[in-house]
Amino acid sequence: FHHLWVGDIPVTDGNMNDILGDGCARFVPSSGMLYLEDLTITDRWHENANGRKAMLSIDCYLTVCLEGENTLKNIVWTDRDGVYIAEEYSVNFIGDGCLNVAVSKNGGRAINAPGSTVSVNDDVTLKLKGHYGFYTDYTGDIGYLELFDNAKVFAYGLRTDDDKEGNAICTCYCWVCDNAYLYCEYEWNQPAFASWGEDFYYDTPVQVRGVNWRNFPSKTLQTLENFNKGNGNPYEGDYYILEVKAGAPQYTVTFNMN
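User: That's the sequence. What structure does it adopt?
Assistant: Structure tokens below.
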């Protein structure tokens, strides 16, 4: 048993070479590497120690190598996670593949990483959609989201049925380095990043774009330097899209899922 669940299946010595029996997931304990290739999981859950249910549950230090298109999709349930990373562990995403995570707008967290560090490297793409795209528990230690190389992260926070605002990325420190790219979009009138201790580091000029697609006038394109100096207030409710670039071109993204 390796403190790792793929869907509702615990990873053991007996199944680690083909965890789900479909050739899409395998684990190498000597390197702490989980390989995912064209994996699809729909509504298969493990309930972890804190009561959260997730389609990929990680309770260890782990490197996830992504190849092809990998999808974690929640159709039926509310208030569940796509990926759960136990507190204070670190997870590295590497490779040249994509991970699509779509969970419920009613309490769903595409990646839930309380007090953890998530590093996205190489040519990996993460597409995260739920009530929270990327979430760390602000009642405990704040987590980290780090983007390096040519990594791309698209995060979407969706408004609930009872009009609670979504957050694309909530309560974490964020680093955007090299040629990495970060895009955030969310519904309602709060900033894309929640206001509990978030911070940015960047090693090349980056851009912030505020775009209205509801009720407020849009902002002009600004550099992050001006954004942080207060040239326009991101907490007035008119920053609906936050785009951070470190030398990368602009991208568009489509979720091929409900």
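The CA atoms of residues 159 and 187 lie 5 Å apart.
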